[in-house]
Amino acid sequence: MLANNAPQSDWGRSKTMAYWINAYNAFTVKLIVDNYPLGSITDLEGGKPWSKRWIKLGDQTYTLDQIEKEILLKKYKDARVHFAVNCAAKSCPALLNQAWTASNLESNFERQTKKFINNSQFNEISPKSAKVSQLFNWYANDFGDVKTFINKYSDTQLKSNAKIDFMEYNWKLNE
């Protein structure tokens, strides 16, 4: 369905973003299902499954990296995308159990971001220190000031002098 319904020029921001988030997540799931059983998504394509050009949408073929980095992040400049797309690893934000749509995009962004930041499996936050997901390290430029971004969504507020460290990323399959 995604392949036959590529975004149109008259689609708005929310509808287009929802399409690309759904495409990224659906094709990630397809990649895992088509290659199951496996221990990690990094077992595929020499450890770089995100670089393989195989996703046919409309008249173009994409990689997962293109969808995430060149379309969603570069075009829309919304760091909450990191909590919407799922890379099939235990350290990835949870896959939403519904489709993203234009009408639920903003509420899902807010809910998924808050849920991820406040989950101690991914982030351990206290006022004086935090041990947070590698996503905040790898994509620091997307988040701007990491403390400010975290404080916007965290139930526990980081002090301005709080020390931030990063957790090891668990690439095992998030069954």
Strand order of the largest sheet: 3-4-5
- Number of helical segments? 6
Helix content: 25-40%
Order of helices and strands: HEEHHEEHHHE
Secondary-structure class: mainly alpha
Strand count, sense and barrel status of the largest sheet are: 3 strands, mixed
Q: How much is the average pLDDT?
A: 97
Shape: globular
Distance between the termini: 25 Å
Integer count of domains: 1
- Strand content is 5-15%
**Rounded Rg:** 17 Å
How many strand units?
Answer: 5
Poorly predicted runs of 5 or more residues = none
Describe this entry's structure for a reader:
The structure is a single chain. This protein has helices at residues 13-35, 64-76, 105-117, 135-138, 140-143, 146-153, and strands spanning 55-57, 60-62, 124-125, 129-132, 163-166. It is mainly alpha-helical and 175 residues long. The chain has one domain (13-166). β1 (55-57) and β2 form a beta hairpin. It starts with 12 loop residues before the first helix and ends in a 9-residue tail after the last strand. The model has no long low-confidence stretch (mean pLDDT 97).
Describe, in short, the structure shown.
The protein has helices spanning 13-35, 64-76, 105-117, 135-138, 140-143, 146-153, and strands at 55-57, 60-62, 124-125, 129-132, 163-166. The chain is mainly alpha-helical and 175 residues long.
Task: Describe how the helices and strands are arranged.
Layout (H helix, E strand, L loop, with lengths): L12 H23 L19 E3 L2 E3 L1 H13 L28 H13 L6 E2 L3 E4 L2 H4 L1 H4 L2 H8 L9 E4 L9
Parallel strand pairs: 4-5
Antiparallel strand pairs: 1-2, 3-4
Helix pairs in contact: 1-2
